[in-house]
Amino acid sequence: VFWGTNWCAIWFAQKGCDVLITDITGYPGTLPVIYNFNITKLPELDRPYIDKFFETDLWSIEHSLFTTVLNPRQKEYIVEVRPDLADKVLVHTKCAHENLLPISEDVEELPSKMIFWPFRLSDKAYKWEEFKEVFESSIYKGYTVVITDPNETSGDLPPYVVKIKPTKEEYYKILQSKPIVVMLDDIDTVLHPGTIEFFHYGCPVIAFNAALIGNKNSITDLNQLSMALSNVVYNRTSMHSFVYSKDEVDSYLNERFIH
Fold first, then answer.
1. What are 233-239's contacts with CB under 8 Å, separation 24+?
2. Helices 72-81 & 54-62, crossing angle to 10 degrees?
């Protein structure tokens, strides 16, 4: 859909280019192309909005110079389905850049019992309904849950939930204040730039697993949420494997195919 809708503008923009680097699957043009796919189909996850593009993803990988993915599990499954693509898929975890992650001087201190939930409530992967059930049965008192509701599906909200619509600048100021982020997703299966930003700013992130990052606030079961909130660790993990430093050039990509 993207390429068909925007092809006229892309056709003019690509003139004079030697190679295209994109995260949008299915490029139909003639330029050599490198893809970066943050998310692709995994059989253990129910994500029809991602899964429906899998055949296009496989076609894109086949016709690319190479394709980078963020999670080892992504490559594992792609190669299960298409062993011939093993040399075309590379796990490359750097997906954020310090130059694009602002630091502000005027950052307000947040309440210690504030939970930040900047995710789509309608996305079942984040388990909003399951979270509310556990939260209301054992955690409710004293906590405020701040949501951003990106796709406007919240409807009536419980009294402990506050909805905000921050600008991009305000959003990064919130992260700089290190709120508790409850992200009930498996980071080792679904790692993306927004997740890396939480850790970059030092937010304590309560999430499933996260061995890739070394998260000290990991849980294995939703029933551990109350204990995790009581014992939040404000750990600043080194993010060099995931975030480019200010003057860093991606030598990994240069060494692979671009000279």
1. 233/204, 234/178, 234/202, 234/204, 235/202, 235/204, 236/202, 237/199, 237/213, 239/96, 239/196, 239/199, 239/200
2. 90
Neighbouring-strand partners of residue 206: 182
Query: Which two structure tokens, joined as six digits, stand for 230?
Result: 């009581």
| 26: number of Cβ within 10 Å | 17
Cα 83 to chain centroid, rounded: 26
Report pLDDT digits (tens) over 200-234. 888 999 988 777 787 888 898 888 888 888 888 77
Question: Up-side HSE of residue 12: CA atoms within 13 Å toward CB?
Answer: 3
| CA atoms of 154 and 39, how far apart (whole Å) | 25
Q: Among candidates 177, 171, 184, 178, which has minimal Cα distance to 228? A: 184
On whether the CB atoms of residues 94 and 195 are closer than 8 A, the answer is no
The pTM score is 0.80
User: How far apart are alpha carbons 91 and 132 in whole angstroms?
Assistant: 35
Integer Cα distance of 84 and 175 in angstroms = 42
Q: What is the DSSP letter of 203?
A: -
